Amino acid sequence: MQVYDRVFSLQDVSFRFPDDASNTLNDISFSISRGERVVISGPSGCGKSTLLYLLNRLYPLNCDGITSGAIHLFGKNAEHYAPGEINHRVATVFQDPDSQFCMPTVEEELAFTLENLHVPFAEMDPRIAEVLQLTGLSHLRQSVIQSLSGGMKQRVATACALIMEPEVLLLDEPISHLDPYMADQFIEWLDELQKSFNVTIVAVEHRLDLWGSFFNRELVMDSEGNMVADSAFAIQQPVLFPEWISAAGPETALTANEISVRMKDEELLLPMSFIAKRGEVVVIAGPNGSGKSTLMKALCGIYAISGGTVKSDGAGYVPQSPEYLFLEKTVAAELAFSGVSSANELEELMERLRLKEIRDAHPFSVSHGQKRRIAIGAMLADKRPVLLMDEPTSGQDTAALLELFELITERAREGVTIFIITHDMEFAASVADSVLLIKDGHLTGKFKAAAVWNDETLLAEHHLLPPKGVQRYAESFA
């Protein structure tokens, strides 16, 4: 049996944010050795990301958190490291990549990272070229980061971490914004990287089924911030949802007629046309950077269309970054602001979205998965006839996904038209009546869901993988 050097060692570690009455983490103990591949799993909001940030010293220093117990990094007490000292050995890719970018372009962001490491100027260009080639991003070297899709931003953030040549790579839900093909490619690439450099990998993840046998160990947390298991990783089965058939009515809820989007002399969306009926659930799918989020923003008026027309009954939008929606200081107030008609309705909505335990928390202070559920709740409370959701499944545990499934199907039966961008093919197959496939700003077409799940060529051309249990799903739409 191979003997590893310990890179992390925690003994009876508890953590509490200064304004909280109770701990986020309770008496956590484990060690991680050099070269291991470890995944941290558990319900949304259980403290997984908080634990990750204790490993890179972001916490407690950056939040005035209160910590007890012993944390050792590379055999040294974590408190004995100077601020920032550990970060060249432990690199982190955050759940929201926008939170870690400082410069406008990909090349400048990579150069900025090297400058912080005091790398000589003459060595920068070859290191930048090498990491871009390694991550398949060479064609984006001069690109403006904020013009990229969420998935591409995640890959750029990973490149910025790798250019530091770290000993440990911390990943906070790294594939949540990647299409299925790119997620599969990312995991294969990460596998080769780990074998070549023996880098230690610690990841927070919900969609464990996509990782196959990548991890060799799993740390499981419960909803109260306790570690309840530390065991060998077992290959996971995907979440399977109940079957349903939409009762979509014949009335049209949204019409897009030859709409296009152009920004700064760049054609983001070429002219496309489609309609959606009342009560129809439409999944928008395609490769990262294909224009899915651009289309959704055009449908709700955030992006001005440069041609064509959009007619709808009135649309509500849940963005990839849910913080953009928040206006109030508590979760309960945020949902109430959005139009909940009674106290009973508010309580029911918070119960179903598993938000009651954080009802008095500030919407900006909770986990990423909880922020998404707050934003979804706000739009559901607003009772718009058309609902647009960009990656609503990201950061959600199994219980939250099942509840989201129920809420979507209920609203669809009530006549609400729902557009969903998601890379979770199992979830897409469970809810979709139809699928809009987009590639390179072109609309390939609007298809019945069953036709997509059974067309291997169509799936491959759009960087999608067939959902597991595809036959069962296809039959439910027949």
UniProtKB/TrEMBL annotation:
Cite the InterPro entries for this sequence: AAA+_ATPase, ABC_transporter-like_ATP-bd, ABC_transporter-like_CS, ABC_transpr_CbiO/EcfA_su, ECF_ABC_transporter_ATP-bd, P-loop_NTPase
- Keywords of this protein's UniProt record, alphabetized? ATP-binding, Cell membrane, Membrane, Nucleotide-binding, Translocase, Transport
- Its topology with respect to the membrane? Peripheral membrane protein
Give compartment(s): Cell membrane
Q: Which SMART domains match?
A: AAA
* UniProt-listed Pfam families: ABC_tran
Q: Does the keyword Ribonucleoprotein apply?
A: no
Is Nucleotidyltransferase given among the entry's keywords?
no
ABC transporter domain location is 8-248, 254-465
Q: Annotated Gene Ontology MF terms?
A: ATP binding
Q: What is its main location?
A: membrane
What PANTHER family does its record include? HEAVY METAL TRANSPORTER (PTHR43553), HMP_THIAMINE IMPORT ATP-BINDING PROTEIN YKOD-RELATED (PTHR43553:SF19)
Q: Family, per the entry?
A: Belongs to the ABC transporter superfamily.
- The protein here is known as ATP-binding cassette domain-containing protein
State the organism of origin: Planococcus shenhongbingii
Native organism taxonomy:
Bacteria, Bacillati, Bacillota, Bacilli, Bacillales
